[in-house]
Design goal:
single chain; 2 domains; eight-stranded mixed sheet; about 30% strand; FAD/NAD(P)-binding domain; globular; D-Amino Acid Oxidase, Chain A, domain 2; 9 helices; alpha+beta; binds flavin-adenine dinucleotide
Length: about 375
């Protein structure tokens, strides 16, 4: 046997799983086709949102509460700053599904929050241009994560704890052999007791089927220069998510470099992509709608593009995570797909994966994320 546990994919979820499994004293080996912190999957882009008043459902809140101390633990163990609490602003009409669901989550679970009308919100955050009738739901327990540093920190810490790491190697398939799992690459087959599969958008390729109900969506992030860096500092401005039309949102961050801020649409593309053929070029058609909306809604923003980056979501049919044993292959634990909103959960998803592969069970309620709810996974 090459290790007690294998982790395939060392991106957002896999790096955290490697750290958590190594921390429990198991012999673990991790694989990635690229180097940790790379910009070719979903775990990059300088910043990711952390928030707790979770519009996607109150079932996520216990995991978010658990994620926060785990982020702090990773910071302490590695000496790297990973999460800056800036507070978060959910902006729009109180009727918009995202704002109303976030508010319900905050109220039902007793999370600290405030709701401000447009005039009061503009007084507090003069960076915002608001419409009459819009509101701001503010929560202090929100902020900015540093994705590349987080992935590298988790892998480095796992190595310190004894993990082996193989990079630059593409895993072709993984097979539950009943009493162990085989990890097959072009050159050799590795044998491990149990496996965490955390390959994000590549899941169909590693499981050898194009029939899974997941789809990869290209996402473009754009940085625009700012004129008032002090006003966009994380102490003066939070992460924000703003209602767009009935079903969509766009979002942005405080300035991390004192010169620019990043903004993006959430689900703006709608086309299916292949993770190996993703269009990584950024076109005027990607930038123009974002520039228009950002300039119309934020003050002290300049129209020139400072930087762009392409990323991808791996969407699921119900927009919920997929976490748990692969039906019919109980030695293989799926950590994802994460449906385009998973980064903030990375350390707790890593802890859940470690629970499942080391102890065979977890105290977290992962029922809502059960892979078994998706019949196509049972047919793999
Ligand atoms: C633009 C954008 C913005 C986002 N913003 C936020 C946010 O603000 N907050 C938030 O919480 N979430 C956010 N998300 C979602 C979040 O980033 C993802 O849910 C999360 O990163 C998914 O993690 P993952 O580990 O599943 O995938 P990845 O991080 O992509 O990791 C998968 C890894 O598997 C490796 N791999 C794949 N196939 C193989 C193979 N065959 N052999 C070896 N290695 C393999 C890949 O190289 C990669 O390293 C955002 C996503 C995008 C695209």
């Amino acid at each position: 046997m090459d290790a007690d546990v294998g982790v395939v994919g060392l991106g957002s979820m896999g790096s955290a799983a490697l750290w958590q499994v190594a921390g429990r004293g198991a012999r673990v080996i991790g694989f990635d086709q690229f180097e940790p912190g790379h910009p070719f999957g979903a775990g990059h882009g300088e910043s990711k949102i952390f928030r707790t008043a979770y519009a996607e459902g109150p079932e996520y809140v216990p995991m978010l509460r658990a994620a926060l101390p785990l982020w702090r633990q990773l910071e302490e163990e590695t000496g790297r700053p990973l999460l800056t609490m800036s507070g978060g602003l959910m902006i729009g009409s109180l009727d918009h599904y995202f704002i109303s669901s976030a508010l319900r989550s905050a109220r039902d679970l007793g999370l600290l929050h405030r709701v401000y009308g447009a005039a009061e919100a503009e007084r507090r955050w003069p960076q915002l241009k608001l419409q009459p009738g819009e509101h701001v739901l503010w929560e202090p327990r929100a902020g900015v994560l540093r994705p590349e540093s987080a992935v590298v920190a988790a892998v480095d810490r796992a190595r310190e704890l004894g993990a082996d790491v193989v990079t630059g190697v593409r895993v072709q398939s993984v097979v539950d052999m009943g009493d162990h799992v085989e990890i097959r690459t072009a050159d050799r087959t590795w044998r491990v007791g149990r496996l965490v599969l955390a390959v994000g958008s590549w899941i169909g390729k590693v499981l050898g089927t194009a029939e899974l109900p997941f789809w990869v969506e290209r996402q473009v992030q754009v940085w625009f220069p700012i004129e008032e860096p002090d006003l966009y500092h994380p102490e003066r401005f939070g992460i924000f998510i703003r209602a767009l039309d009935e079903w969509s949102t766009w979002y942005g961050f405080p300035s991390l470099d004192g010169r620019t801020i990043k903004v993006a649409f959430h689900h703006n593309n709608g086309r299916r992509s292949d993770p190996d053929q993703l269009d990584r070029e950024v076109h005027a058609s990607d930038i123009e709608p974002l520039r228009e909306i950002a300039l119309a809604n934020l003050r002290w923003l300049r129209p020139e593009v400072a930087r762009t980056q392409v990323c991808m979501y791996c969407n699921t049919p119900d927009e919920h995570f997929v976490i748990g044993p692969l039906p019919g292959s109980p030695r293989i634990v799926l950590s994802g797909p994460m449906a385009g909103h998973g980064f903030k959960f990375s350390p707790v998803v890593g802890a859940i994966a470690a629970d499942l592969v080391v102890e065979g069970r977890t105290a977290y309620d992962i029922g809502p994320f059960d892979p078994g709810r998706l019949p196509a996974l049972a047919a793999v």
